[in-house]
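Deliverable D4.2, example record:
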Amino acid sequence: MTDPPGTRVARHSAGDDRYKWTALTNTTAAVFMSALDGSIVLIALPAIFRGVHLDPLAPGNIAYLLWMIMGYRLVQAVLVVTVGRLGDMYGRVRIYNSGFAVFTFASILLSFDPFDGGHGAMWLIAWRLVQAVGGSMLTANSAAILTDAFPEEQRGFALGINQVAGLGGMFIGLVAGGLLSAWDWRAVFWVNVPVGVFFTLWAYRTLRESGKRGGGRIDWWGNITFAVGLSAVLIAVTLGLQPYGGHTMGWTDPLADGLIVGGLALLAAFVAIENRVGAPMIQLGLFRLRAFTFGNLASLAISIGRGGMQFVLIIWLQGIWLPLHGYDYEATPLWAGIFMLPLTAGFLAAGPVSGYLSDRLGSRGLATGGAVLFGASFLGLMLLPIDFSYWIFAVLIALNGIASGMFASPNSSSIMGSVPAHLRGVASGMRATFQNSGTAVSIGVFFSLMIAGLADSLPHSLADGLQQHGVPAHVATQVGSLPPVSSLFAAQLGVNPIQHLLQPSGALTHLTAVQQQTLTGREFFPTLIAGPFHSGLVIVFAFGATLAFLAAIVSLLRGTGPAAKTRGPQTTAPGDALAPATDGRAAGD
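Output generated by the structure prediction step:
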């Protein structure tokens, strides 16, 4: 009897040449698409907001913007471990194939938003959450499928290509978002449809189960406490970025504080549950492997730095540098993507090479060196003036991309090579959770630091600048006292908010034509916020450099000892990840 396509048990070696390259091609396309959609919206938001006729600067609409950015990452951070465990239980290829279908279906519905305004934004947010479910099923199982398919001596190269595709999708999304949104905002979702349909059908026809299934039951209490706990923390981060009462941010909001406390309590309960149940959602015993633990901690630190840096660079380019250099606000998303190409090029050049070298030279040195270079690029960016010379900026972001590529491939190979073969699905999910959680948290952390840097000087600068151009003192003071988050969102969306802020008072109508033209022109707002913004930049880049150097130290501590050698089947206690063990790959190198 013939097995259904996509769920066949391998009748050949997992290292079969033709199959392993098929698996690499398909999973590379999958993780690329999933990561692309995590960042493509970030730079296309101005076109999307215009497309659904939503005022991005209206106070109530800040939540739509945040959820458009962070909702996708939140779902991926929460679900990847669960779907990785499901892959170990019921077949990695089966869960992976289902994820491709869900992802493609959601992409189709995203491109046909039938609503306007807030309802249109809610449609997009809801279907992006569904899309993220499919993306989680892809990313959680792709590394495990490759680890099953490739022999030990080629595994670093294959995982490196896969990891480069995932992070490369994140970088390329910044460029693609600018290019596609200049044509039509729906195009940022259309791009997934033909690719998704083709690779979904191809995956069902060609991929086969080549690893062991663990069987077992679903750890419902573990899944619930983990999902609700992590969701509560990430939702609290989103609330913390929004003004509350008379404060510039929402960290004093009782709801945000309650969600953080409740979320952390549930995550603590999750750890307690996982130590007691017979079939845990995650294998806490994996954290006894140094390469696994320290590799994931280093990945978390680098992910926080990388995600926050991308967000800050977009604000810098779209809101300040490009307008000061004569670019119209409507064109800034396109040109911001183009001017960030060196970041993408550096990563794409270094990633495959470092994956190849990690199979021969080991992972620890390359990953640690990449983290050090990553931190050095932050220090370089911190020293740049607001109105920088582009070529210096290009070199620094290219070095940042090279550093990310040097770190990502060897680190991923070290993590996945250190775990037992039968737990590669859940290990891949845990690795993705650290990475996605870091990216989701990074926006909250960097945004909070940036707002803190702006809060002291921006109100005074804004009020003084308006008064110097004829705006009455009481109106200028009122506008200057508005939350800095509004100015940051205006810069991120490439919008000049001065006309919007002065319209309710009617102050513009009492000014001369020259004053009106100056206030609403390309240069006034960017020049006004440049000084306060630079203060915020110094804070966030110093924090990013600190994270990178901590990641380097942690990466160095991963050790050089080999993983446990293969043993026969044994009975595992709850949370014991080490039996049966791996195929003997050196974990830390």
